[in-house]
């Protein structure tokens, strides 16, 4: 973390993912839906990843990769739910995986929007793609600050689907 | 394939729409769930207080309780939330 703008943006992302995590777990407790439980776990991991950025830069990519993998897997219901990735590779590779799965989840959600025409699907899909783009900007170490801002914007757009 | 929670929500919705309650045979027909499995689910829902059986002239019928209606409202809310992410609960 270098600038205050990056720290604020990261903090906004953490708050947004924390609210999504809380809502998912609360929903699981209320209606006992395993989908909501898995969604909550996925966003909890993503949130931990964002928190870890305060301590060790790039460590968060591993968490985000796992979190988005879980979201991606949720779209592929046929896959074995016990599948778990073992990612022991440099941060760039971790970030690439995070990009892949966040992008995949974003595209899947936008495809779902094509079917449902619900604004919430469009918002979450757009948010996921923005997060994916932000990870790319952070990886290339070029537009780092803008990357954090885009990341916060992505999570805020995802969050806005909640308040509708 | 419908998840268990979806089947439960569909059952509760069917009961909510029915003013006088429904017999188990009618629930089997409307829910498209085999009799044995449906019986298990209904027992579970009754234990949780989401539905209850009452005696009518034509026999025993199931009706949704206030707790069941509350559960259904929570289900609708969180179903909408999950659908935002492209998931079905």
Q: Count of helices of chain B?
A: 4
Look at the helices and sheets of chain B and give the structural class: alpha+beta
Low-pLDDT windows of residues of chain A: 78-89
- Average pLDDT number of chain B: 91
In angstroms, what is the radius of gyration of chain B?
13 Å
In terms of topology, how is this protein built?
The complex is a heterodimer of chains A (164) and B (89).
Chain A: H1 4-31, H2 34-52, H3 59-75, H4 91-116, H5 119-139, H6 144-163
Chain B: H1 4-17, H2 24-31, H3 35-47, E1 51-56, E2 59-64, H4 66-84
Helix pairs in contact in B: 1-4
Describe this structure in words.
With 164 residues, chain A is mainly α. Chain A has one domain. Chain A contains six helices and no strands. Chain A has helices at residues 4-31, 34-52, 59-75, 91-116, 119-139, 144-163. In chain A, α1 packs antiparallel against α2 (34-52) and α2 runs antiparallel to α3. Chain A is globular and about 40 Å long. Chain B is an alpha+beta fold and 89 residues long. Chain B has a single domain, classed as Arc Repressor Mutant, subunit A (Orthogonal Bundle). In chain B, 61% of the residues lie in helices and 13% in strands. Chain B is built from four helices and two strands. Chain B has helices spanning 4-17, 24-31, 35-47, 66-84, and strands at residues 51-56, 59-64. In chain B, α1 (4-17) packs across α4. The mean pLDDT of chain B is 91. Chains A and B meet through α1, α2, α3, α4 and α5 of A and α4 of B.
């Amino acid at each position: 973390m270098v600038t205050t703008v990056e720290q604020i943006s990261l903090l906004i992302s953490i708050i947004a993912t924390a609210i999504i995590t809380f809502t998912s777990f609360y929903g699981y407790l209320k209606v006992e839906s395993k989908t909501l439980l898995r969604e909550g776990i996925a966003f909890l991991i993503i949130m931990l990843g964002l928190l870890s950025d305060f301590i060790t830069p790039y460590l968060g990519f591993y968490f985000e990769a796992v979190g988005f993998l879980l979201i991606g897997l949720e779209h592929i219901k046929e896959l074995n739910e016990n599948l778990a990735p073992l990612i022991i590779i440099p941060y760039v590779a971790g970030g690439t995986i995070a990009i892949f799965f966040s992008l995949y989840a974003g595209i899947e959600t936008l495809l779902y929007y094509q079917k449902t025409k619900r604004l919430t699907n469009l918002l979450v899909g757009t948010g996921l793609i923005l997060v994916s783009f932000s990870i790319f900007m952070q990886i290339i170490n070029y537009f780092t600050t803008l990357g954090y801002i885009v990341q916060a914007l992505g999570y805020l757009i995802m969050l806005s689907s909640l308040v509708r | 394939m419908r998840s268990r929670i979806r089947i439960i929500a569909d059952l509760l919705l069917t009961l909510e729409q029915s003013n006088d309650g429904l017999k188990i045979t009618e629930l089997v027909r409307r829910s498209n769930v085999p009799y044995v499995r449906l019986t298990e689910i209904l027992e579970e829902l009754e234990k949780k207080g989401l539905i209850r059986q009452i005696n009518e002239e034509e026999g025993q019928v199931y009706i949704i309780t206030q707790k069941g209606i509350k559960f259904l409202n929570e289900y609708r809310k969180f179903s909408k939330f999950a659908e935002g992410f492209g998931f079905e609960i």
